[in-house]
Specification:
Layout (H helix, E strand, L loop, with lengths): L2 H5 L7 E3 L5 E3 L14 E8 L6 H4 L15 H4 L19 E2 L9 H13 L2 E8 L14 H14 L2 E6 L7 H15 L7 E2 L11 E6 L7 H8 L19 E5 L6 H7 L3 E3 L16 H10 L3 E3 L1 E2 L23 H12 L5 E3 L14 E2 L1 E5 L9 E5 L8 H19 L1
Helix pairs in contact: 4-5, 7-8, 10-11
Length: 413
Amino acid sequence: MPELLASVTLIDKNAITYSTGFEIYIQPLDEVSEEILDVDENIHAFYYAWYGNEEFDEGYYHWNHRFLPSWDADSSKLYAIGERHTPPHDIGANFYPSLGTYSSSDPMVQKLHMYLLKKAKIGVIAVSWYPNDKSDDEGVPKEAQFFRELLDSAQYGGIKVCFHIEPYEGRTAQSVAEDMKYIIKTFGDHDAFYRRKRPNAKLGEWDLPMFYIYDSYRIPASEWKKVLSHDHRNNPTSIRSSPETDAFVIGLLLQTKDLKEIADSEFDGFYTYFASGKVSQGATQQNWKTYANFAKSNNLIFIPSVGPGYVDTNIRPWNSGMTVDRRGGNTYRESWQAAIKCRPEIVSITSFNEWHEGTQIEPAVSKMATVKHPLGSFTEGKFNYPSYASEPGYYLSLTRQLANDFSKSAVQV
């Protein structure tokens, strides 16, 4: 029996019963083979470690997300903007997690997540990261010890970790360079810290870490070039000036016209993140072949981001026009198929557990609850959290199936 499964003491014959009383279906131990636990480190999933509950964090974080205002002030007037969800049954998401309103700081949750990632063949998580004293508006700052513990859990599960650097007040190209240096210095010696072979590596050259930079387009290419220039002899501020600080740095492509900015910035590649072409031109699958050709011509890594769907109307009730239905898994299948056709080195998944925007593949359960402001209304009512196509772990199984197709296509190149 694999050590991972033998060590997860909460696994019964066919289910994990978590302390909240919620159940998540897991394949019986005697049916799990060594083969089903292999992973592919060219499959990355965006992972959010910002959830908190009363048991571990002395309060709810993110599950109690506020209803956010629209860019159109008149639309905002129609909803209970600024009001918060009231967990555990009323949460800021359109789906409900099988593990309930868990804490990202709970070591058992972390280990269970690594098992679920492994079940889906995902080899790397890109964990959302802010500097030690910062966080998004719905969370609290996470210190280095938290990420060490997450790396320990990842190592326990055979998963690697890279970092997805988020926007924060005062973020500049130079501050991001310092962030990357800090992360490498603080976590770079951990066995679960993701590193990737550099192209045409010479004998003795070590593998490099990888960083995703969310909303990188907000900073001009001229500023990025100062810290990412490969001509570091004339630019000592570049992270390339030392092999100890060099890295694969991946920018976010929002629009096709930004391709030149990506190259001029001297990013090592680009990703599309969004799970819907409604959100960005970069996420429009019909454009991916163009992006792949551009990447190849400019010696860049193109990382298409695939996703199961999108729905955020339980935090942005005015945003239903952006909803992308999951269509029983077909939306996810089609995004994977579009990615595979581009022959990418890496595929990223949006997301493992971004529950607010309904892009998660983490298991979910059907649930009916009485909530204070269903979809932002001003009166209390019932809200139905839907199930997936067949069972809570449906998207884990589907991910493994599609990941196998990707791995096979890579072998055939």
